[in-house]
Give the backbone structure.
Amino acid sequence: MTKYNGCAVITGGSRGIGASIAEEFAKKGFPVVINYNSNEESACTTLQKIQNNGGKGIIFQCDVSDRKSVDAMTKKAISEFGKIYALVNNAGISQIKLFTDITQDEWHKMVAVGLDGVFNCCQSILPYMIHEKNGRIINISSVWGVYGASCEVHYSAVKAGVIGLTKALAKEVAPSGITVNSIAPGCIKTDMLLGECDEQTLSELANETPVGRLGTPQDVARAAVFLASSQADFITGQVLGVDGGFC
């Protein structure tokens, strides 16, 4: 395992894509901070798997839309591991609904978690990265943030916002030795997708994906670890599609 000078903070890290990202970072020698909002049991399970494989980490309960909670998480990461090398903004929610039926509360919640959360985490952690003149920020967007999705207008808008934030912030912090990139997953087989689609729809999505299958959380996790590695030193402000050629 490679030893990195600092930890990796993964938001929404208790299950699905976030859990796989945490596990993959731990395999590469990163101590990990697994953020969760409500599912403590899953966060503990993820941490236990990491520890069973010789990795290090902690869990931290935090609503990323709450700046005070985010700042507390940042301070805990620093006090526990000394430095933060990587931030993976994965926390988010989804909803399938006609645009005309979306309530203002649903719109604001989608923005608060999926976009305000990225802003809060980046702004909280960046001063420490700037001080070190080193760091990696990886924002999990979506293929729908690139192309848009019917009946997911609020989700698509938030994920497009994440891409815009990524591209602009990358230019701003590049002189400080920090890279900022985004991953746009396609149809990934997670609890979120399984909760929204029946078996027929899942089969259709797999058939519409040129590689002939749905993606896995591990597919996304490997891309995130690559973007955090020294092999990606000259890559910043980019959107990496992990979608099997879906779009």
Notes: The chain has one domain: 7-241. The chain has nine helices and seven strands. The longest strand covers residues 178-185. Residues 104-132 form the longest helix (29 residues).
